[in-house]
Amino acid sequence: MKTYQLEYHRLIAILFLFLSKGVWAQTLTLQQSIELASKNNYLLKISSLETESEQLLIKTTKELAKTNLDIQLGRTQAAYTNDYTLGLVQQFSHPKLYQAQADLQKSRVVASQRNEVLQKNELTGNIKQVYYQLFYYQQLREILSQQDSIYRSTLQIALARHKTGETNSLEKISAEIRLQEINNRLSVLAKDEESAYQHFKLLLNNSQDFKLDFNIPLRRDTSAITNTLSLTNNPLLSVFEQQTIISQQQIHVEKQKLKPDFRLGIINQSIEHNFNQMVLSAGIGLPIFTQAQKARVEVAKVNERIADSNRKQIELRLNTQLNMLKMAYQKHRNSLRYYENFALPQADLMMKNAIKSYQSGEIEYVELIQINQQVWQLKDSYFSTVLDFNQTIIQIETLLGIE
Questions:
Q1: Which pTM value belongs to this model?
Q2: Predicted confidence (pLDDT) per residue in 100-116, tens digit
């Protein structure tokens, strides 16, 4: 019984050790990766805290000046007795100024929220791009592995022919060089994959190892971008539009500062030892010397024109970028149609017949290599075009603010 319990506890300890070291790595889909990054990414956390900070500042927009408390003690009323004067005065700005400041700060909160959306949109776009880059590497590794199998088979045939004296050593050496070339490309590809994988981990802000689920179509779905190609929801443009609104409200705030201030007070005093003599006071601060404040209004107007010019420049740049991406999308789509409808089926058929002909001795090794190189270049170009197509779709989605 004790032996059984020892074995049981040992098994539990080993299982815990395996889990703590991440032996069973989590498998993530693209959507799960985006959700994990949205939860963990430090830039998004910073943006969220900035929004919280701006929201708290709304409470400061109706802050009153410090209350003045004055006291006088002495012979203020008569020469033969001491009296006191106690004054309490509160100064405040025009009510419309407080409201204008509150509206301005609320607009800053909206700007911070829009910046938060921008950060998330850019993060999502980066995750999708690296994800499809890794997907491309997987496809490339598969066709390189196919090439490796082909050259291993041809090497065996070349060795057999060399032993029987049918060919010289040139065919064998050529097959060995081709095989080493494929192995080198696989080695380089492994490094590229590891680099992209580390980049992906950084975006997720996740130190644990994981696997990616690539059970997706080779080409990214385009329905999201074909339904709308408007920049209405572009997060960057939205940020600049809000900056224009903020600059307009800043003008309003500066104008409200030209309005008068007000004071209210109460005075309690004694007159020849007759205590609690109450006096109410009120005053108004007239904006007589307004040159400096009017200059601030003009500065705010200039800043509003600057913000509007920046918005127009960003809108022009984004529209140009969108038009260029549309043309790239059409170019890659047409190329994929060529590959999928004509080139790839013909290449597969050509390669299949070439291998049979080589194995039966109908064609020489050189002819087989030439055909194989053509097929390899076609497939390599095809998967490279698929990557360009997918990355273009992702860039358009990011530009349109589509997750």
A1: 0.82
A2: 999 999 999 999 999 99
